[in-house]
Specification:
The complex is a heterodimer of chains A (109) and B (114). Helix content of chain A is 0%, strand content 58%. Chain A has 109 residues and is mainly beta. In chain A, the strands form two sheets. In chain A, strands 2, 4, 5, 9, 10 and 11 form a six-stranded mixed sheet that branches. In chain A, strands 1-3-8-7-6 form a five-stranded antiparallel sheet, with no helix packed on it. Chain B has 114 residues and is mainly beta. In chain B, 0% of the residues lie in helices and 52% in strands. Chain B has no helices and eleven strands. In chain B, strands 2, 4, 5, 6, 9, 10 and 11 form a seven-stranded mixed sheet that branches. The radius of gyration of chain B is 14 Å and the shape is globular. Classes of the chains: A mainly beta (109), B mainly beta (114). At the A-B interface, strand 5 and strand 10 of A face strand 4, strand 5, strand 9 and strand 10 of B.
Chain lengths: 109, 114
């Protein structure tokens, strides 16, 4: 079974700071998902990546398949980025996703 | 497209009661999932389905049942509610693509069993 670890578990930042959220997994995978859970509970998909780097607005996701590690970076953070960020990986070769516990980010104005 | 629609948003059940959490998606996705999220914990897979007529157990299936008679609908049934089933439940579907697999989630159902 793939174990997914996220660090840190909580992070408080000031508006404008550069933020990095880490995700490590134990078994080799084909792709990794980053998701965002809003304070109201809704979950949205941010990225799916299988190699290298993806960028969407102020969000950048990178993955190192050999090291079994991914990072999500937020540039010029804003209070509206406050949310729980979750990474997820497939279990085995299936489409069943195993989720990390998430990292709660609070960005203060 | 409405995406993934989950109902109800909130529910309080008494121990031993039963209920069905509804989930529907209009994106013609084959893969659908039910997860529960307990405070401070990651999402745990209850059941999943790879297409109409096919369902399988996830990590925490005890106390739940599912059916998938159509591609669109994937209801989750609790037969004898227990306090341990107090949780937030999420339904999800997966759009599969070679380069762009994406997960879509419902808004969640907050269930309290008293």
């Amino acid at each position: 079974k793939n174990e997914v670890e996220q660090s840190p578990q909580n992070l408080t930042a000031q508006e404008g700071e550069f933020i990095t959220i880490n995700c490590s997994y134990s078994v080799g995978i084909s792709a990794l998902h980053w998701l965002q859970q809003h304070p109201g509970g809704g979950i949205v998909s941010l990225f799916m990546l299988s190699s290298g780097k993806k960028k969407h607005g102020r969000l950048i996701a990178t993955i190192n398949i050999q090291e079994k590690h991914s990072s999500l970076h937020i540039t010029a953070s804003h209070p509206r980025d406050s949310a729980v960020y979750i990474c997820a990986v497939p279990q085995g070769g299936s489409e069943k996703l195993v989720f990390g516990k998430g990292m709660k980010l609070t960005v203060n104005p | 497209n409405a995406g993934v629609t989950q109902t109800p948003k909130f529910r309080i059940l008494k121990i031993g009661q039963s209920m069905t959490l509804q989930c529907a998606q209009d994106m013609n996705h084959n893969y659908m999932y039910w997860y529960r999220q307990d405070p401070g914990m990651g999402l745990k897979l209850i059941y999943y389905s790879v297409g109409a007529g096919i369902t399988d157990k996830g990590e925490v299936p005890n106390g739940y049942n599912v059916s998938r008679s159509t591609t669109e609908d994937f209801p989750l049934r609790l037969e004898l509610a227990a306090p341990s089933q107090t949780s937030v439940y999420f339904c999800a579907s997966l759009r599969q693509g070679l380069m762009n697999t994406e997960a879509f989630f419902g808004q969640g159902t907050r269930l309290t069993v008293v």
